[in-house]
Amino acid sequence: MAQVEEANQESRNLDDLGGEEGRNDGEENGRVNSIANELTNDKGAKQKSLDRGKGKAELDKLCELRADQPYAGIKHIAVDDHAGEFRRIAIIDKYRYNIFGRSQNDMDFVASKNMDRELNYGIFDPHHDNILTVISNTNVYGYDIKNDVEIFSTFTNHKADLSSLDFNPNIPNVIVTSSNDGYVKFWDLRFLSDAFLTVNIHSHWVTSIHFNNFHDELLLSTSSDNTVKLHKIGYPANLNLKKKDTNYQLIKTYSDHEESVYQGRWSKTDAWVFASLSYDGKCVVNSVPTEEKYRILL
Asked: What is the pTM of this model?
């Protein structure tokens, strides 16, 4: 009977959040458990959590990247950190790009360029200084941002708009493009008449494509078909990409998401770890299979 009475008393403590503080340790634990249960309720939990945080200090704004014209619709923000430290930011706006350089205490507006075409994405070339590469519809354009000139362009012959592109971190002039047609294409910027490798890797839009930061044979893709895929590219020993002697292998398909996966990223510090984010806000962290690690390292 004593145990039953004690259990009943503890239950009353769980329901009573407004009781006097400091009665005993059991009552304090009851409050903690009650709050935890309250936060897990489907209805009203999010709002109650927000209400509790109203008294917290707001985040401090470090800087504001303001260009010489208002933004029309930012598509992407590219960071130039390939030299081992953060140097510049490119804001890819709907019809222009804006470059901001890092000073000692701030980010300074450097340059901008208006376009007669709508931009979708852009990144810095890790092998050539002052080169920004952008995509528009099914075309790729390269700009010398220091001299404000277009230095290359190509029609990719994808059947739908481009969604992303990335530079090979180890081999200069090699890029990969992804498209809403489900294909990825590999290009040598010295021979832009045709891609040296074309692969249909997803059943729906390819939303992002990224080379591994350490091992350029590994490639990560995400798609609105709800999957994340890990690929392996084998380049010829002499790097004569014009002969198109390149091998492709699908290593693994990850099906952890229930909705469209919009972005995937490799870790900057761990060669084998990557994360993906889907439309429903779910973030999944995965790693390269152990057997594949050994094939690369040994």
From this structure: 0.78
Q: What string of pLDDT tens digits covers the 298 residues of the chain?
A: 444 455 455 444 444 444 444 444 454 445 445 544 544 454 454 454 445 555 567 888 878 888 888 899 999 999 998 767 788 999 999 999 999 998 877 888 888 899 999 999 999 999 998 999 999 999 999 999 999 899 999 999 999 999 999 999 999 999 999 999 999 999 999 999 899 999 999 999 999 999 999 999 999 999 999 999 999 999 888 777 877 778 899 999 999 999 999 999 999 999 999 999 999 999 999 999 999 999 999 8
Residues 86 and 30 in one domain: no
22: in domain: yes
| Residue 62 falls inside a structural domain | no
Q: Which residue range(s) make up the domain with 202?
A: 76-297
Buried (b) or exposed (e) across 272-289, using 16+ Cβ within 10 A?
bebebbbeeeeeeebebe
Q: Which two tokens stand for residue 45?
A: 């939990």
* 114 and 238 fall within a common domain: yes
Distance CA 167, CA 88 (A): 17
In this structure, the answer to whether residues 19 and 147 fall within a common structural domain is no
Q: State the Cα angle at 102 between 76 and 70, rounded to 5°.
A: 45
Domain count of the chain?
2
Co-location of 105 and 174 in the same domain: yes
Residue at 58 is within a domain: no
**Tokens of residue 238, six digits:** 């002499």
DSSP 76-140: EEEEE-TTSS--EEEEE-SSEEEEEEE-SSSEEEEEEEE-SS---EEEE-SSSTTEEEEEETTEE
159 shares its domain with 263: yes
